[in-house]
Design goal:
With 448 residues, the chain is of the alpha/beta class. The chain contains 14 helices and 10 strands. A hairpin with a 3-residue loop joins strand 9 and strand 10. The radius of gyration is 27 Å and the shape is globular. One of its GO terms (molecular function) is fatty acid elongase activity.
């Protein structure tokens, strides 16, 4: 008698049916979310620009609330700072800061460093056509994130730079470190002839110093700092003199670190709960003013015309010999420079320098618009400002540029550049997708 075999096709089909039911049960919530997500997308597509901005500000507010762990006073304080900061809605923070709560891990910090540094260097290589093997000197400056191996080693590894390259990694030197790097590159180029020096300035926000506490003085950096980076190529090769955009004329550095208040006005420390962050002193603007005064006293004789030097000298003699209460003479630096790139550290910094140096709104336009579009990008902000002037078609042959930066320590550094040729309006760069909208009116308070 023939043995009756089981119906394999039926059993296989039943197994597939069971798997299908199991998959459906495991992913039922995902399937239910699909129509909800589609509905949300349709609603977002119907929104206008102003409504999208309101939505973004609302999300930003939610992130601040989550980051402050329900501390209403901290939330209100940060919202007041943001409303008066002069920052626009297009500034960027790294991916790790979008998590709730933020996840400033070392791995995320390295990923941010790679994105910022490599994109800036790639853009520079493409514009100049230089081969990475031709670079003789490499200088990286990043204040807060200092891993091992260093960021300069990361760049050497990525671009397979020569084994005899002279590499430097500057950290902890604050927002003025970009001009310190330029000064270091200049000194090295004076010793090493026929060389290229690559300077890369950036600040990595995804670092262990990202503050998660409630101390107001330590919450300020969280509100103002944003992603950004810049790469600069310097050369002392004779053949590059014709194609170089600028000539470095002077670098003047002022360091007030001998004074205790100045030394501690931008200070990394732990709060009462042991949370690490950067403390910005309430005396910061006063100390910055003193550092600026010392710096312009040093750079003035190098750049000012004879008439301004004489007026300054006569006022100084009068104060010493006749009346010490005479108001000191502030030289007219508009006679020495056509363009001013003031570190976009915050609205108060730009306001104070505009007032003290008696500059017009157009003179500080590049700084204000950089702060609005990109936020405080630390040492790289000066190069966003110079790029703004170029894209606006204002940089002409023979124009002189004054870069002014402030940094922890406390330091005030200046660089004077001369434009070698009229700069054609660039078709790429950080401003390419938004320059037509600038300059914009920036209200004193933007209600969030």
């Amino acid at each position: 008698m023939a043995e009756i075999l089981p119906n394999f096709s039926t059993s296989v089909k039943l197994n597939y049916v069971k798997l299908g039911y199991q998959y459906l049960v495991n992913h039922i919530l995902s399937f239910l979310l699909i129509p909800i997500v589609l509905r949300l997308l349709l609603e977002v597509l119907r929104l206008g620009p102003e409504e999208i901005l309101l939505l973004w500000n609302s999300l930003n507010f939610d992130l601040i609330q989550a980051d402050s762990q329900g501390n209403k006073k901290s939330v209100d304080f940060q919202m007041r700072i943001l409303e008066r900061s002069g920052l626009g809605e297009e500034t960027c923070v790294p991916p790790a800061m979008h998590y709730i709560p933020p996840m400033p891990t070392t791995g995320a910090a390295r990923a941010e460093a790679e994105t910022t540094l490599f994109s800036a260097i790639d853009s520079l290589m493409e514009k100049t056509g230089i081969n990475p093997k031709d670079i003789d000197i490499l200088i990286i400056n990043c204040s807060l994130f200092s891993p091992t191996p260093s960021l300069s080693a990361m760049v050497v590894n990525k671009y397979k730079l020569r084994s005899n390259i002279k590499s430097f990694n500057l950290s902890g030197m604050g927002c003025s470190a970009g001009l310190i790097s330029i000064d270091l590159a200049r000194d090295l180029l004076q010793v090493h002839h026929n060389s290229y020096a690559l300077v890369v300035s950036a600040e990595i926000l995804t670092s262990p110093n990202y503050y998660k506490g409630s101390e107001r003085a330590m919450l300020l950096p969280n509100c103002l700092f944003r992603m950004g980076g810049a790469a600069i190529l310097l050369s002392n090769k004779w053949r590059d003199s014709a194609r170089a955009k600028y000539k470095l004329v002077h670098v003047v550095r002022t360091h007030k670190g001998a004074d205790d208040k100045a030394y501690r006005c931008v200070y990394e420390q732990e709060d009462k709960e042991g949370k690490v962050g950067i403390n910005l002193s309430k005396d910061l603007m006063v100390i910055a003013g003193e550092a600026l005064k010392s710096n312009i006293t040093s750079i003035g004789p190098l750049v000012l015309p004879a008439s301004e030097k004489l007026l300054f000298l006569f006022t100084l003699i009068g104060r010493k010999m006749f009346n010490s209460k005479w108001k000191p003479y502030i030289p007219d630096f508009k006679q020495a420079f056509e363009h001013f790139c003031i570190h976009a550290g915050g609205r108060a910094v730009i306001d104070e320098l505009q007032k003290n140096l008696q500059l017009s709104a157009e003179h500080v336009e590049a700084s204000r618009m950089t702060l609005h579009r990109f936020g405080n990008t630390s040492s790289s902000s000066l190069w966003y400002e110079m790029s703004y002037i170029e894209v606006k078609g204002r940089m002409k042959k023979g124009d002189r540029v004054w870069q002014i930066a402030f940094g922890s320590g406390f330091k005030c550094n200046s660089a004077a550049w001369k434009c070698n040729r009229t700069i054609k309006t660039p078709t790429d760069g950080p401003w390419q997708d938004c320059i037509d909208r600038y300059p914009v009116h920036i209200p004193e308070i933007v209600k969030l």
